[in-house]
Design brief:
The chain is about 70% helix and about 0% strand. With about 500 residues, the protein is an all-alpha fold.
Length: about 500
């Protein structure tokens, strides 16, 4: 059976994980490409003011955040494969239309529509991923998946470099000083080609998703035999069944049991019901139906809201730099071409750091410890960016690389903790949708990285440092609260084995 499990994991790692990672990369790319386009004069050539871009980013995240739970629930109900393909086609077309924006209202309207279509994509695909991997296989795979957010920044910088070099709007792809008497440009602007190219890639991947993604392990086309498909689903059921007596067992007590034996028995009953067929006849491997009890359990769980606040404040630098890093680097005094090229190393540092950290997290079965490590590194790097003089270009650039190395760790490990500690699949889906409200950090980021604070963005770094500091305190207090609860239960003989 162990050999069969290894075969299933290997094939799923080869055929499912890379494809999901690819579509999340394109999702992240279409969300953040306005920052790369702005280095090539997007707002100026489109007849917009620089602050219109910030307002459009803010509007995107308002729609994106408000519709997260709705999008997650729809994805789960419709089926992730069909839903992902459909919404990707939609936002791919809208991304291409950014190339033809000529007014503030058009830009904001497009970004709102893209945000509405992308809402729920991440929590729905995370829930989908959890159908194929057990609890202690999950964080590492989630890290590979979420790491595409950083890879998208690097890929976007590379694509922008080549597009702006091959199709320069101005000499050497640079932007001249604004002029009220600028001559009419003939042909395509380089930023227009960028939007259309990335839109085309998204639509191609979306059409492929309809054929590539099964409803669950029992329909996975990469598993060749009925025995493989049956065991792929059953091993997930067994892993969830083990949660009847113990959810996630971790040194820091990252599992909170009920406060008394009666509540604990009620939680067990909910978990047992989740392992049986639901009203529509589907079980966990086939995306079980959602009911009102799942929604009630999710919105009354204090852990969900505490971690949501932590997730919002910890996500500010990651979301901010996903859009504004090209402008921050350009503020160091680099040309448009070099600014986009120099965004690649910081983003790659973020991705590699995340992948290694999630590997350690799964191996040690710890979450909060590594979240605090990442936030500590982010705080140190932000302090350097605030204190270093603007002329210290190399140290400031190294600080950016260190900052992104710690930035992307908190969010996926928070998702892993929530996913592993929710009693039923339905509650888990709703909780992941609520946690998606952490993207309200995008609204904060658009306010913090204001164009009038360029090129040094010292005040922006200061505000970001304050946000990360709040997150560090929040996660630390959550760790203390969880450990304290498990300590009390340990004295009553209810502690989990291995705590």
């Amino acid at each position: 059976m162990q050999a069969l499990t290894l075969t299933i994991k290997r094939r799923t790692d080869i055929y499912l994980l890379p494809f999901l990672s690819l579509i999340f990369l394109l999702n992240s790319l279409d969300r953040s490409n306005v920052g790369n386009a702005e280095t090539a004069g997007f707002t100026r050539h489109a007849g917009l003011a620089p602050e219109d871009l910030n307002d459009a980013v803010s509007a995107f995240f308002v729609a994106f955040v408000l519709l997260q739970p709705v999008g997650a629930a729809l994805g789960k109900r419709v089926g992730v494969g069909r839903w992902v393909g459909g919404v990707m086609v939609g936002w791919g077309i809208l991304t291409g239309l950014n190339a033809f924006v000529r007014s503030r209202s058009q830009l904001i309207g497009l970004r709102i529509c893209i945000g509405a279509l992308e809402a729920g994509f991440y929590p729905a695909t995370v829930f989908y991923l959890s159908l194929f991997y057990t609890r202690y296989e999950f964080a590492q795979r989630l890290g590979m998946f979420y790491g595409q957010y950083a890879v998208a920044g690097a890929f976007g910088g590379l694509v922008s470099y080549f597009v702006f070099r091959l199709f320069p709007t101005e000499p050497e792809g640079d932007i001249r000083a604004p002029s009220t008497h600028e001559p009419e440009h003939e042909g395509w602007y380089s930023y227009q080609i960028l939007f259309l190219l990335e839109a085309g890639l998204t639509i191609i991947a979306a059409l492929t998703a309809f054929l590539w993604l099964p409803t669950g392990p029992k329909n996975a086309w990469w598993l060749k035999t009925s025995a493989e498909r049956a065991w792929a689903e059953k091993r997930i059921l067994i892993d969830r069944a083990q949660a009847e007596n113990a959810l996630e067992v971790e040194e820091e007590g990252e599992e909170l049991l009920a406060d008394n034996e009666s509540d604990e028995e009620e939680a067990k009953q909910r978990r047992r019901r989740s392992l049986s067929t639901s009203k529509n006849g589907k079980i966990i491997g086939g995306e079980p139906g959602l009911n009102m009890q799942d929604i009630t359990d999710a919105i009354t769980d204090w852990r969900v809201w505490w971690l949501l606040i932590c997730n919002i404040t910890s996500s500010v630098p990651g979301i901010a730099f996903g859009v504004f890093l090209p402008l921050v680097v350009k503020g160091f005094g680099y040309s448009t071409l070099h600014a986009n090229l120099l965004t690649i190393p910081p983003f790659l540092c973020g991705a590699c750091s995340l992948w290694y950290t999630t590997y350690l997290s799964d191996r040690s079965r710890l979450r909060l410890k590594y979240i605090l490590y990442g936030l500590t590194l982010s705080l140190f790097s932000l302090a350097l960016l605030v204190l270093l003089p603007l002329t210290a270009l190399t140290p400031r650039y190294v600080a950016l690389c260190l900052l992104l190395s710690g930035t992307y760790i908190a969010s996926p490990l928070t998702v892993a903790w929530l996913s592993n500690n929710m009693e039923t699949p339905g509650k888990r889906a709703v909780v992941l949708g609520i946690n998606g409200w952490g993207n309200v950090a995008g609204v904060l980021a658009s306010w913090i990285f204001r164009p009038e604070w360029a090129p040094g963005y010292e005040r922006s770094f200061g505000w970001t440092m304050g946000s990360v500091g709040i997150a560090w305190v929040g996660y630390a207090l959550f760790w203390v609260a969880i450990r304290g609860g498990n300590g009390r239960r340990g004295r009553m003989g209810l502690a989990l084995v291995g705590e």
